[in-house]
Amino acid sequence: MPTLIQQIKNRLNQLSEAEKRVGRYITRYPELVPNMTSKDLSNKTDVSEATVVRFCKSIGAANFKTFKLTLAKELPLSKEDLTDFSSLKKNDAPYDLFCKVTQLNKQAIESTSLSLERKQFEKAVRHLKEADKIIFLALVVPLLPQWMEATNFHDSAIIR
Questions:
Q1: Is 138 in a helix, a strand, or coil?
Q2: Rounded CA separation 39/77 (Å)
Q3: For the HTH rpiR-type domain, which residue ranges apply (predicted)?
Q4: Does residue 135 lie within any of the structural domains?
Q5: Taken in order 89, 93, 99, 101, is the CA torsion positive or negative?
Q6: Does the structure show a pLDDT above 50 at 80?
Q7: Total structural domains within the chain
Q8: Are 148 and 156 in contact (CB under 8 A)?
């Protein structure tokens, strides 16, 4: 079965001009879309929010949220992607940088969860439960003391 991006490319010629703008943007910047609202995407492509929703339905998604979830699941998760920051450009708009960094972080979290071995994870949790003390090491985390207080980590130590 073709990916969502491939489906968009295959159907591009069958879409209205406004929907084509949405499709072209998504195929060029798929990593940005999962963090966007329909309003954000409509602004980036100079179309109405209704056009964004129509585009999603034309591609086979029930709505924009479903479309974004499907797209996010299909974005590549490779080890190279986790340390490749080449998608970040000096002239990127602040919100675009935010979306790109968010996507990279999501990929790192997903990759970590996929690489965990259940037995090793459970062993680590057992050791943490049995520990008399857990020491958190943090660098440049100014709110850590407040977080520890709010979460009742009164017996924990902070090493700076």
A1: coil
A2: 27
A3: 2-78
A4: no
A5: positive
A6: no
A7: 2
A8: yes
What is the residue type of 20? Answer: K
> Torsion-angle region of residue 62: left (phi > 0), alpha (psi -120 to 50) or beta?
alpha
Residue 61: in which H helix or E strand, if any? none
The distance of Cα 49 from the centroid of its chain, to the nearest Å, equals 22
Q: Are strands 135-137 and 157-159 parallel, antiparallel or unpaired?
A: parallel
Give the alpha-carbon dihedral of 54, 10, 110, 41, to 10 degrees. Answer: -30
The CATH number assigned to the domain holding 11 equals 1.10.10.10
Q: Is position 51 within any domain?
A: yes
- Over the stretch 96-119, which tens digit does the pLDDT of each residue have? 888 888 877 877 776 666 566 778
Assign 85 to helix, strand or coil.
coil
Residues in the chain: 160
Please say if the pLDDT value at position 11 is more than 60.
yes
Q: How far apart are the first and last CA of the chain?
A: 52
Task: Residue 102: give the domain boundaries.
Answer: 81-130
pTM over 0.85: no
The yes-or-no verdict on residue 159 having pLDDT over 50 is no
Do 52 and 90 sit in the same domain of this protein? no
Q: Which residue do the tokens 């977080």 mark?
A: 147
Question: In this predicted model, what pLDDT tens digit does every residue of 112-139 receive, in sequence order?
Answer: 665 667 788 888 899 999 999 888 765 5
